[in-house]
Amino acid sequence: MPTAIPADSVGLVSPKVEHFAEPLALACGRTLDSYQLIYETYGELNAARSNAVLICHALSGHHHAAGFHDTEDRKPGWWDSCIGPGKAIDTNRFYVVSLNNLGGCNGSTGPSSINPLTGKPYGADFPVVTVEDWVNSQARLADVLGIEQWAAVVGGSLGGMQALQWTMSYPERVRHCVAIASAPKLSAQNIAFNEVARQAILSDPEFHGGHFLEQGVIPKRGLMLARMVGHITYLSDDAMGTKFGRGLKSEKLNYDFNSVEFQVESYLRYQGEEFSSRFDANTYLLMTKALDYFDPAAAHDDDLAGALSCAKADFCVISFTTDWRFSPERSHEIVNALMAARKNVCYLEVDAPQGHDAFLIPIPRYLQAFRGYMNRIVV
Amino acid sequence: MPTAIPADSVGLVSPKVEHFAEPLALACGRTLDSYQLIYETYGELNAARSNAVLICHALSGHHHAAGFHDTEDRKPGWWDSCIGPGKAIDTNRFYVVSLNNLGGCNGSTGPSSINPLTGKPYGADFPVVTVEDWVNSQARLADVLGIEQWAAVVGGSLGGMQALQWTMSYPERVRHCVAIASAPKLSAQNIAFNEVARQAILSDPEFHGGHFLEQGVIPKRGLMLARMVGHITYLSDDAMGTKFGRGLKSEKLNYDFNSVEFQVESYLRYQGEEFSSRFDANTYLLMTKALDYFDPAAAHDDDLAGALSCAKADFCVISFTTDWRFSPERSHEIVNALMAARKNVCYLEVDAPQGHDAFLIPIPRYLQAFRGYMNRIVV
């Protein structure tokens, strides 16, 4: 943590855990008999219960979106740049709820949780969960918190997909949907990258068919490779070029396979290494599957406008010029469908060199527009 | 093979092997005491020895570029669409030489060859080879074949880099250089993809530090992952979308990790599987390193025009609009440097949806322009 908590921080926060005993039917046909969700809240719910904002996380995200858990924390929550007093999601106005999704590995029930039927970690026995399933589980959390209707559901990337799904699954319960750096479904190339990541994990001998925890090991190599591939798609070619170019790690070339020649190799190895020691491989598989399966238009003859026609929310869609994981064209698909469905939609394409990761970065024009939209929400 | 050999095929061909006993000093500082190169030739060398064309192969290519080895062959050589009587590289006019590069796994000396010092396969002991090393070894092959000067040196992708290097290493020995879908050096993103592929191979427990052949195994999983990543970069997002879209493998979703849900997953797994059973993992590592290291401008204060100023060849540069591995902008860098160095250069940007792989595909406008350039070469 910085020496003093910044004035625009939500400060010290603590996660809460909610247990759900009512079985949850999943899209895959299976049922979770019981589960828990871990979440944090920032700001105060107003008397009318009309100022609640739900934050939906992306592939490797979690409930800790803002503030600090401990005075020793080096870094705040993952979206601290956007959540806090006076920030885009202003905690002086909004009551913010941020959870770890079902299947996660940060405190909500997931593959590394104990399966009550066996007394062992679920591992590969944890059911495949979809964006729809997550939204259903989030609705139950809203019920518990006494939130009949969200002022806004907000998310970037996979989080944006959940925000969109909310407007279709629970049209009456969302007044505003903010989908940032997102897409209405994955392209073949998006699925291909996910498949490489999955095969890296599945083919790691330490994966043990998903039951590695029982063996006391983790498929570190597979998870590392998966993250390395992912990272390439999070950054733009330009951003990588600016950040690393062809910069060498040491003064001269080594001409072997074990040395790190280029700085970009060092960066990727570090990112992969760090991630592989903190993230669950089965959760990674689940998250990529949730991405692959998301396709709300599919049930409407591939007519996205048809799928979105039931929505009652207003929409804000934001994309970034150099994002090649979910390019601005993918946001245009959402915006065009919303216009065809006669919904209110604001769209902003932010000129930013950072690629997909831009949604996590405090880019002035992005924050200004995001704050502008959020501030106009009546609570 | 088709039922009859097509009239525009070079027909049945046989590779030849040349042994070199004179040591070859390599860029890495090591020396190969002796080695062999496997090659094929198509067409006839004219009396003036002025009609020879060298074909340089890309990452996974080899010497068998055109024609058939056997009447039972299902497919011709890898660039049969461009080499043959009346084709872009017209074997009625040209004497075409196509070799497998040093470090390869198709008959030239490489990591799977026997190291004369140990009596065992070189494996990881095979030295790292660079594009400059390849060009030097190719020059020795030219000497043996009595070719003082190539009418043209031609290549796509990594092959284009060799063609460019020829004009700098041996300016007097190249009259024309044709560099297709190539780049003057890798970007950070290009290196990053190579690094993922390398880590997939290096971290495979069956890699055994590169000495897997002695163990009687191959790092199949690593090589499969490497090829899957590579394949994504060879195709355009559009091409993948057109070819596979979100098409399912079976009628309904399976919601598990072992089934193949989408056709694009099936395609990638097949490509990876097929490749891993025919290609050497150490060769793959070497090829990616040769790509990473290629940077002729580096020795000239990053001035590519300065690096190319010694060239005496005329140049033809061809790029493809949807190639995102080596985008048209990368070819522009080459063309701009050539113009700054006052060289003769023809440039064609072909509108093609196939991505990087387009250079292997018989696209009419591409073939027409390529043939047009080659036909104007005086022999």
UniProtKB/TrEMBL annotation, chains A, B:
Family of this protein: Belongs to the AB hydrolase superfamily. MetX family.
Binding-site list for substrate: 227, 357
Gene Ontology CC terms, in alphabetical order: cytoplasm
Protein species of origin: Stutzerimonas zhaodongensis
Active-site residues annotated for this sequence: 157, 323, 356
Listed GO biological process terms: homoserine metabolic process; methionine biosynthetic process
Subunit structure of this chain's protein: Homodimer.
Broad class of the protein's primary localization: cytoplasm
Keywords: Acyltransferase, Amino-acid biosynthesis, Cytoplasm, Methionine biosynthesis, Transferase
Positions marked as site (Important for acyl-CoA specificity): 325
Pfam families: Abhydrolase_1
Enzyme Commission identifier(s): 2.3.1.46
Function according to Swiss-Prot or TrEMBL: Transfers a succinyl group from succinyl-CoA to L-homoserine, forming succinyl-L-homoserine.
Domain AB hydrolase-1: 51-360
Protein name: Homoserine O-succinyltransferase
